């Protein structure tokens, strides 16, 4: 930085030039080859004996490599520590439900039947209740939201908005429910979150509440072992046929009739039609009289509606088409239905305004349920109930109610775990007054629930006599319901009372289960949090020690002496010996020893505990031991090093600022409001830093530097502000937020004008990057080709990709659809090949971004006089480290840009401009060694996470990004693409961390590795503290109403972010810095150790 | 750029700007000493009294309270503060570059110009608020009026005492001015505005959470706190960043 930035020669500089001059003399011919090598990009080796200079360089290089390896070791240990902490917390936090093995059987109803009927206790007549149907067709229309099925009319006050694409496209269910109320009914069907298909299918077949622990295994379903509907049906001798979504075959392997079942891949959300077409193709032959004999129960699962939602959002003509197709299918199915078959059509969950699901917002849980039969046995207990509810808030039924309803209608026992209640409409009789039937059904279901509850208490080791029996509790309600049965003459009124008393028991029990279902393992959660706390403390101590060590080295007098000593010994032909650095080494060694002894201790204590506690897993105990042992060991060793002279509190306004940002955010995550409005908060902090930087820049003495500093600070703020217009609102932000990320709030496709953004980026961004290179005269070497041509072409290609994608989504060229996809995937693959493949190669082997000119006259001080007396000017010398490293950032940038939708690409482009401005700000204000730089980078990463169309919710994950560079799901590439899309901003910020240190750093700068390690540590510390805070809050607020809606998703988002940044931190900045340093040292020689 | 060591990149001198500037001295009258202590009380009382109206109707309340605020601030300036140009006489050691002539009846003109100049800062203050996340397409009158209040409270006295002295203003803008009650109050007002944004996102559903009530409240509280701290506790000190 010295050379181009300060025109006047500073006193220390002349010594370094003198030293270089002396060294240049000493090297003579060797020096010339070095200079040559800049042009030839790679020096050629001469088979001649090594002189002391070369030996010295070798020593320094070896020393650097050792120090670097220990640093990597430390960060790798940190990653493992974070993994262990998150593992233990998650294990205790994500609800686990004890799975009971008991099964219901036909002969043993949970309670003596209130009414005897002929053949009770047999499959033929009905096990626990007289059966109504022999056969059933269950059609699941994935993501069928309730408002898709009810008519919508724009009529001023209440429905002021015009109808959307999903309205009035599937009217059949509503029509039949009104016109033939005895044959059909339509009700809102409320899902228990998580609203992912796998969890929903578990809930729909077992009749229990799903637990969160399974949420992650959506894409690799595991077989259900618990008692469930299908198991009961199979035991009753029913033949089950399955069509559609292959999640079923994963959950129920071997259940389905082999020859006639058809399973289709479920994860390809870009494919709207294959599954549905397959279902329609095979369902009608099976329904036809000649096909009926081959099955008893049919399950058909259509995915088109769900995929249309994921891909386009509900308000898109593709959704209208899908719903109309379903309408036609249902009409045809009803025509083909015989009298003895029950038809059930339902959505397993809804979808949010953009068409995604997974969480527990209203739109996601409100599905629709429609039952139809030609028998005409359905009724309503109130004539007003004939009209299906206008919204899902009125008379909803729970999804767990399906299991008891279907079981009793088909005459099989209710599965043991079921805690739902029979649906009124199905048992109320034509006149709606079949109270005896209703009471019998709900009584046997309630008894099942009661039996399950007792069994669960026994399994959990809870003594039933200790539970609360006061009024209103399930226990009291159960007793009251039992009393209401009485023994006298049972009139309709008595049956009605019985019905309602059992119903209230069911409702209350369900509420209790929802509240208390699965227990949190607080010990495991606390262990996880303790490990995470240790991680944060180690990280901060490490960063501080690193920073202090590198500061201690910055003594110009000492350096001068050392330089002279080194020169002396070279002239004498000796090679000085350097001691290894201790900071990373001691940490890594302590971690290693601590984890080994901890693991042994943990495993040992597990084997002792084995005798007493069955649950103590050897592996878990070993991991816990290793994590705590190593954490304590590192903490102790670092504390011992830090305590004597370290001040634990920040010393400058900038460090305070970094601390205030991260602490106030951490506190804010205890409140749902601050969690919801995190993006605005981050903009506020980013602007605060920019304003402080502007104020600080005004203090700069030099006029030009002052102007530059102020300009970059204002640009930094303005760019962040501009990016804040890219918004994807979460449901809780309504109505104070307007989404701009997609064409509309109910779509997930880009608006046509947004497609221009990538082209604007292609035109502008490379020039902007170039201008920052040019300011330090570093637009030399590989930079012009790589940034001006390759980078720009890459962006153009990604712009073309998004045009093709939009053409495909918008059906611009209906005949070319297949072709569009065939073309665009290779384009994306090419961009990745350039950014990652070619980019890494170029970065590894590229010379520094400098060029050398030889002139006779003396120029500025970025020159030295070689042995022949001519002046050698090295352009870009002063930024040799930074400019070259930036090439790597550009590669990462290109890869991230490729996976972002046009609007997100715009945000990422603004972010990269902000990063460049930040580098200049930090350099001009001498903040390259302060924690504020890495902290602001982390703020930028977190901020632009939101600006690239994400939120801390499961439903905001852009699953379709898995198909950007692939035709099908491929492991591990599909998850990696999704991660790159989701955490693109954080990845870019993490990759840019070393640039904070390296920018405007001349080749002879010493101790860079320490500064880089400290910067990475500070950067990670931001994410680690945020993750720790969200973890602690999620644990603390585990009974909070908003846990699954706000705190838990935030905890998961923050944990994933920490993981991603941990891994990226090792692979991009550390390895990138090493390659960069080797290349710079190759050309300019190693700096003093 | 400050003097820096080219090898270590650390600054050798922590304070780059010439330290010749001094904190503002109040006018040496009893009335000045009395009024400078009543001034914060008047401001707080006025703000507290108009707070309910501010919550109900921010725009009209902020607008209607501008003239009284201008009068309070102008009286404060006339009674307590040395008008720009007169400071040279009050300083024990006169600044080499400052004007030494004093025009006795300068205050009214200075008041007028200071009011005019501080009004010019309103667009800048509004822009700053918007850059920090204030709404752009809606609530513009709200933001403009809250900026007007900041301008009258914080900027106007600064203009009144410093005039258009570029060097001094660079010191003020870089927060490097020696702390006195005028500068302290201005910094306090800004910090108050910053902190005032904190309760806005909370879901307490209170009327007073609406824009820009909390900001204005923060400005007034910060102004008063900053004035007291700057005038009594930290007087003469400078804000160092490093």
Features:
heterodimer; A: 1089 residues; mainly alpha; Alkaline Phosphatase, subunit A; eight-stranded mixed sheet; three-stranded antiparallel sheet; 36 helices; 11 strands; 57% helix; elongated; disordered N terminus; B: 242 residues; globular; membrane (chain A); mannose-ethanolamine phosphotransferase activity (chain A)
Assign the CATH superfamily of the domain at 134-153 and 169-217 and 228-376 in chain A.
Alkaline Phosphatase, subunit A
Q: In what order do the strands lie side by side in the largest sheet of chain A? A: 4-3-5-1-6-7-2-8
Distance between the termini of chain A: 20 Å
DSSP strand content of chain A = 5-15%
Largest beta-sheet details of chain B: none
Question: Which structural class is indicated by helix and strand composition of chain A?
Answer: mainly alpha
- Which fold name is given in CATH as the topology of the domain at 134-153 and 169-217 and 228-376 in chain A? Alkaline Phosphatase, subunit A
Number of strands of chain B: 0
Mean pLDDT of chain A comes to 85
Residue windows where pLDDT falls under 50 for at least 5 positions of chain A: 1-15, 21-25, 28-33, 41-46, 214-221, 858-862
Q: Averaging pLDDT over every residue of chain B, what do you get?
A: 85
DSSP strand tally of chain A: 11
The gyration radius over C-alpha positions of chain A equals: 34 Å
Give the overall form of chain B.
globular
Number of separate helices of chain A: 36
Order of helical and strand elements of chain B: HHHHHHHHH
For the largest interface, the chains and their residue counts are: A-B, 46 and 32 residues
| Overall domain count of chain B | 1
The outline of chain A comes out as: elongated
């Amino acid at each position: 930085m010295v050379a181009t930035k300060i025109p006047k020669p500073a006193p220390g500089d002349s010594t370094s030039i003198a030293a270089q001059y002396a060294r240049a003399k000493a090297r003579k011919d060797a020096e010339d080859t070095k200079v040559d090598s800049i042009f030839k990009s790679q020096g050629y080796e001469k088979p001649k004996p090594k002189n002391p200079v070369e030996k010295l360089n070798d020593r320094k290089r070896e020393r650097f490599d050792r120090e670097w390896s220990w640093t990597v070791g430390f960060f790798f240990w940190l990653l493992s520590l974070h993994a262990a902490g998150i593992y233990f917390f998650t294990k205790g936090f994500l609800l686990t439900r004890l799975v009971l093995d008991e099964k219901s059987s036909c002969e043993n109803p949970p309670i003596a039947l209130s009414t005897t009927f002929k053949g009770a206790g047999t499959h033929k007549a009905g096990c626990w209740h007289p059966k109504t149907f022999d056969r059933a067709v269950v059609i699941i229309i994935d993501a069928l939201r309730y408002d898709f099925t009810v008519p919508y009319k724009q009529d001023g006050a209440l429905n002021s908005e015009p109808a959307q694409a999903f309205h009035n496209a599937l009217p059949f269910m509503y029509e039949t429910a009104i016109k033939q109320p005895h044959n059909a009914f339509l009700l809102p069907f409320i899902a228990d979150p998580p609203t992912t298909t796998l969890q929903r299918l578990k809930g729909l077949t077992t009749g229990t509440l799903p637990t969160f622990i399974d949420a992650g295994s959506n894409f690799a379903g595991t077989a259900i072992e618990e008692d469930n509907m299908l198991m009961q049906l199979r035991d009753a001798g029913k033949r089950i046929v399955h069509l559609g979504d292959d999640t079923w075959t994963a959950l129920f392997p071997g259940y389905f009739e082999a020859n006639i079942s058809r399973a289709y891949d479920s994860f390809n959300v870009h494919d709207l039609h294959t599954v549905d077409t397959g279902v329609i193709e095979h369902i009608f032959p099976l329904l036809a009289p000649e096909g009926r004999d081959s099955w008893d129960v049919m399950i058909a699962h259509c995915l088109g509606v769900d995929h249309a939602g994921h891909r386009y959002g509900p308000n898109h003509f593709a959704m209208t088409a899908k719903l109309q197709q379903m309408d036609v299918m249902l009409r045809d199915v009803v025509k083909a239905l015989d009298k003895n078959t029950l038809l059930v059509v339902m959505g397993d969950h809804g979808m949010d305004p953009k068409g995604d699901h997974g969480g527990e917002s209203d739109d996601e849980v409100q599905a629709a349920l429609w039952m139809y039969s030609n028998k005409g046995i359905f009724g309503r207990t109130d004539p007003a109930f004939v009209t299906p509810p206008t919204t899902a808030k009125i008379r909803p039924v729970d999804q767990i109610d399906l299991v008891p309803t279907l079981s009793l209608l088909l005459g099989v026992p209710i599965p043991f775990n079921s805690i739902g209640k029979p649906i009124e409409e199905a048992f109320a009789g034509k006149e709606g007054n079949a109270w005896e039937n209703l009471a019998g059904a709900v009584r046997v279901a309630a008894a099942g629930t009661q039996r399950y509850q007792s069994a669960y208490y026994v399994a959990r080791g809870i003594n039933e006599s200790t539970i609360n029996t006061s009024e209103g509790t399930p226990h009291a309600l159960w007793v009251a319901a039992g009393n209401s049965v009485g023994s006298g003459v049972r009139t309709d009124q008595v049956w009605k009372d019985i019905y309602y008393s059992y119903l209230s028991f069911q409702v209350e029990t369900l509420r209790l289960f929802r509240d208390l279902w699965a227990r949190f393992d607080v010990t495991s959660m606390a262990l996880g949090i303790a490990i995470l706390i240790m991680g944060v403390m180690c990280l901060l101590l490490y960063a501080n020690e690193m920073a202090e060590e590198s500061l201690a080295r910055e003594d110009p007098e000492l350096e001068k002496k050392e330089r002279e000593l080194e020169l002396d010994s070279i002239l004498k032909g000796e090679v000085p010996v350097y001691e290894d650095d201790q900071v990373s080494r001691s940490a890594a060694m302590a971690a290693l020893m601590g984890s080994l002894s901890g693991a042994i201790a943990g495993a040992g204590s597990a084997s002792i505990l084995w005798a007493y506690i069955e649950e103590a897993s050897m592996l878990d105990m070993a991991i816990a031991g290793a994590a705590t042992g190593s954490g304590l060991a590192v903490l102790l060793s670092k504390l011992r090093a830090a305590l004597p002279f370290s001040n634990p509190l920040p010393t400058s306004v900038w460090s305070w600022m970094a601390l205030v940002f991260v602490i106030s955010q951490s506190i804010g995550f205890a409140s749902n409001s601050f969690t919801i409005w995190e993006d605005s908060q981050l903009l506020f902090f980013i602007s605060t830093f920019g304003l402080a930087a502007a104020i600080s820049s005004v203090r700069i003495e030099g006029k030009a530097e002052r102007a530059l500093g102020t300009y970059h600070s204002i640009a930094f703020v303005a760019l962040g502000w501009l990016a804040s217009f890219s918004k994807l609102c979460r449901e809780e932000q309504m109505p104070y937020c307007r989404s701009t990320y997609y064409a509309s709030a109910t779509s997930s496709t880009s608006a046509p004008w947004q497609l221009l953004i990538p082209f604007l980026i292609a035109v502008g961004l490379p020039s902007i990057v170039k201008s920052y290179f040019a300011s330090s005269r570093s637009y030399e070497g590989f930079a012009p080709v790589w940034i001006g041509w390759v980078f720009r072409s890459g962006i153009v290609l990604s712009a073309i990709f998004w045009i093709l994608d939009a053409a495909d989504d918008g059906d611009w060229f209906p005949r070319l659809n297949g072709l569009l996809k065939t073309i665009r995937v290779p384009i994306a693959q090419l961009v990745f090949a350039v950014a990652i493949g070619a980019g890494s190669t170029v970065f590894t082997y590229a010379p520094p971004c400098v060029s050398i000119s030889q002139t006779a006259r003396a120029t500025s001080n970025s020159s030295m006089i070689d042995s022949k007396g001519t002046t050698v000017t090295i352009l870009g010398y002063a930024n040799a480290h930074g400019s070259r490293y930036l090439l790597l950032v550009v590669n990462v940038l290109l890869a991230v840009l490729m996976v972002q939708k046009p609007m997100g690409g715009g945000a990422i482009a603004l972010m990269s401009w902000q990063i460049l401005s930040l580098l200049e700000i930090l350099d001009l204000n001498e903040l390259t060694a302060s924690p504020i730089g890495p902290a602001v980078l982390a703020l930028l990463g977190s901020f632009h996470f939101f600006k690239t169309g994400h939120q801390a919710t499961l439903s905001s994950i852009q699953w379709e990004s898995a198909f950007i560079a692939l035709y099908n799901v491929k492991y591990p590439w599909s998850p990696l693409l999704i991660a790159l899309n989701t955490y693109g901003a954080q990845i870019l910020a993490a990759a840019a961390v070393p640039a904070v240190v390296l920018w405007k750093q001349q080749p002879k700068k010493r101790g860079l590795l320490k500064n880089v390690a400290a910067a990475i540590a500070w950067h990670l510390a931001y994410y680690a503290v945020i993750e720790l805070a969200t973890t602690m809050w999620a644990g603390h607020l585990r009974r909070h109403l908003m846990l699954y809606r706000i705190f838990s998703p935030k905890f998961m988002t923050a944990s994933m972010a920490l993981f991603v940044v941990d891994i990226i931190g090792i692979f991009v900045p550390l390895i990138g810095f090493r390659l960069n340093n080797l290349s710079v040292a190759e050309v300019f020689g190693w700096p003093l150790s | 750029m400050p003097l820096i060591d080219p090898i270590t990149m650390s600054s050798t001198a922590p304070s780059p700007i010439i330290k010749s500037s001094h904190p503002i001295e109040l006018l040496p009258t009893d009335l000045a000493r009395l009024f400078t202590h009543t001034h914060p009380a008047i401001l707080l009382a006025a703000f507290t009294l108009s707070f309910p109206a501010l919550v109900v109707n921010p725009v009209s309340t902020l607008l209607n309270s501008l003239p009284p605020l201008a009068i309070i601030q102008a009286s404060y300036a006339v009674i307590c503060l040395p008008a720009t140009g007169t400071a040279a006489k009050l300083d024990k050691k006169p600044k080499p570059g400052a004007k030494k002539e004093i025009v006795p009846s300068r205050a009214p003109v200075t008041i007028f110009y200071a009011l005019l100049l501080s009004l010019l800062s309103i667009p800048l203050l509004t822009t700053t608020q918007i850059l920090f996340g204030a709404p752009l397409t809606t609530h513009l009158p709200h933001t403009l009026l809250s900026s007007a209040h900041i301008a009258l409270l914080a900027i106007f006295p600064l203009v009144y005492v410093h005039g258009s002295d570029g060097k001094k203003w660079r010191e003020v803008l870089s927060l490097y001015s020696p702390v006195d009650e005028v500068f302290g109050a201005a910094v306090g007002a800004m910090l108050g505005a910053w902190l005032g944004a904190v309760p806005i996102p909370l879901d307490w559903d209170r009327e007073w959470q609406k824009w820009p009530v909390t900001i204005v409240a923060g400005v007034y509280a910060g102004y008063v706190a900053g004035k007291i701290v700057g005038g009594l506790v930290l007087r003469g000190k400078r804000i160092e960043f490093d």
